[in-house]
Amino acid sequence: MAENKKNAKDLGAHLVFIDESGFLLIPAVRRTWAPRGQTPVCRHHLSRKKVSIISALTVSPAYRHLGLYFQCLIEANFNNAAVADFLRQLLRHLRGFVIVIWDNGRHHRGEAIRTVLSRCRRLRLEPLPPYAPELNPDEGVWNQTRTALANGRPDDPQRLTQSVQDVLADLACSQDKLRWCFHQSALPVFVN
Question: Phi-psi category of 131—alpha, beta or left, where left has phi over 0 and alpha has psi -120 to 50?
Fold first, then answer.
């Protein structure tokens, strides 16, 4: 029996859904509770500083265990070199074949990405259809993160980065929250 499980693991591939997002120091405002007649006020510094984040929502081949990996950049955008670096780091954590499903953004193409593909035969890249973010379950990661950070007021990019990392680490520890990402997407249900 244990040998059959091992063989099933070896035959499958990790499915990985990747997406990037950005968070500004200007807080996202959501509806909240307050005493009648006392409108809540969310004060903040008017700053366009930001944190860019890339995340990978993974599905293991045999047991359908979900995982979340992420990386933050302070006041920078992800380019194809940074995405290629993230892919290399991700491949160190995942054994066996890996199928990455992502949008067709320009930072998902280029020489750095081609280099990773040529050096790692167990990696395969598959694009989502154009203009179809509803098919990427990783969008649910951003939805939950923005909801958790709503009405907050970080003072600088380092604090914002720490807040985002705390929320993502909490999300990574919850199989139920990660499953919700798949159930809210328009993908056919394949994760229970």
Answer: left
Among candidate residues 152, 144, 145, 141, the one with its CA nearest the CA of residue 25: 152
Average pLDDT over the chain, rounded to whole? 86
28-65: per-residue pLDDT in tens?
Answer: 666 667 688 887 666 656 667 889 999 999 999 877 89
Q: Which residue is associated with the tokens 């919700």? A: 180
Q: Tally the residues of the chain.
A: 192
By the 10 Å C-beta count (0-12 exposed, 13-18 middle, 19+ buried), 1 is classed as exposed
Token readout for 17 is 């859904």
Q: Which CATH architecture has domain 13-25+43-184?
A: 2-Layer Sandwich (3.30)
> Are residues 72 and 51 in contact, defined by beta-carbon separation less than 8 angstroms?
yes
Counting beta carbons within 10 angstroms of the beta carbon of residue 55, is it exposed (0 to 12), middle (13 to 18) or buried (19 or more)?
buried
- What are the φ/ψ torsions at residue 113 (nearest 5 degrees)? -70, -45
Structure token digits, residue 85: 């670096």
CA-to-CA distance for 174 and 169, rounded, in angstroms?
9
Model confidence, pTM: 0.84
Amino acid in position 153: R
